[in-house]
Design goal:
Blueprint: E1 8-10, E2 18-22, H1 23-38, E3 43-48, E4 51-56, H2 59-87, H3 92-99
Parallel strand pairs: 2-3
Antiparallel strand pairs: 1-2, 3-4
C-alpha cells in the first residue's frame, strides 16, 4: 500500500529544502520521509497541533551541528580556564565546607 502525503516546502535563500509534516502523517509515510531526507537531503520538520516538535535531518546536518556544539563547548572551556587563571581557584574541600556539605 502506497501513501501519498502533502508536503509543504519552504525554500529560503538557497538553503536546502525544508518540509513540514504533521507528526501523525509520519506513521503513514515514514520510509518515504526517510528517503527524502537521506537521499534528497531534505530537512523535515514535524509538527503537532501547529507546533514544531521535532526534525529529521540528513546525517551531514547532524554531524555539522555536533561539530558546532563541540566548538562552542571548547570556547566555553577555554573561557572558564582563563577566568580560573585570572581569578584563581579554590580546593574542592573548601567549596564543600562553604556549602555545608
Amino acid at each position: 500500500m502506497v501513501h501519498f502525503v502533502q508536503f509543504e516546502r519552504l525554500v529560503q535563500r538557497g538553503d536546502p529544502i525544508m518540509t513540514t509534516l504533521a507528526a501523525s502523517k509520519v506513521r503513514e509515510s515514514f520510509s518515504e520521509t526517510l528517503n527524502r531526507v537521506a537521499f534528497g537531503k531534505e530537512r523535515v520538520v514535524l509538527h503537532r497541533h501547529g507546533k514544531e516538535v521535532a526534525a529529521v535531518v540528513p546525517i551531514e546536518d547532524l554531524k555539522l551541528l555536533q561539530e558546532l556544539e563541540d566548538r562552542i563547548d571548547l570556547a566555553d572551556a577555554r573561557a572558564a580556564l582563563a577566568e580560573a587563571k585570572k581569578k584563581g581557584t579554590k580546593p574542592l574541600q573548601t567549596i564543600k565546607k562553604e556549602l555545608g556539605l
